[in-house]
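HUMAN: Quick job: go over this next protein and say how the chain folds.
***
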Amino acid sequence: GKVLLAAQMQIGFTTAVGKRAVNPFEYLHLQFPRRISMRQIRNAERISTTINTRVLDADEAIPTVVTNLSATGAEVRVWEPARVVGQTVSLELILDIHKVRTRIVVSGIIRNIHDIADSGESAYGIEFVDVSTQTNIFLKSFVYQSLVEQPHRRL
């Protein structure tokens, strides 16, 4: 099997060498693969979660749930009143980082609205913006801790 990287895609396939040549330089003739698989590569590790969170930019804080998280963004269940793609939101998350409850507030832009797999609910895809160094460290620590303790949560 081979794995190639093309832009933000990982491409995998199994093939066989048909012929090897050495002149004018070394190269291989490969059989065309029967099946090719592709997977998007994200900018940051992402984990599945169920983190109760609050939207802070409304008159009153609105409860919702983060269903997956990375250091660069999150999938958040849709809340009322609904928002639209392009709007900026402020989220408060309480993360358990090495047994220390840590409150972070992060701003993000809604990049998409989509259905959550297997639940029938809708969610916002949020890209975090203007993340402080400290908040970035907290997010990465939480994600990497989760990957070590529960590797099956990797997305």
About this structure: The radius of gyration is 21 Å. Residues 2-6 have pLDDT under 50 and may be disordered. The chain is about 10% helix and 50% strand.
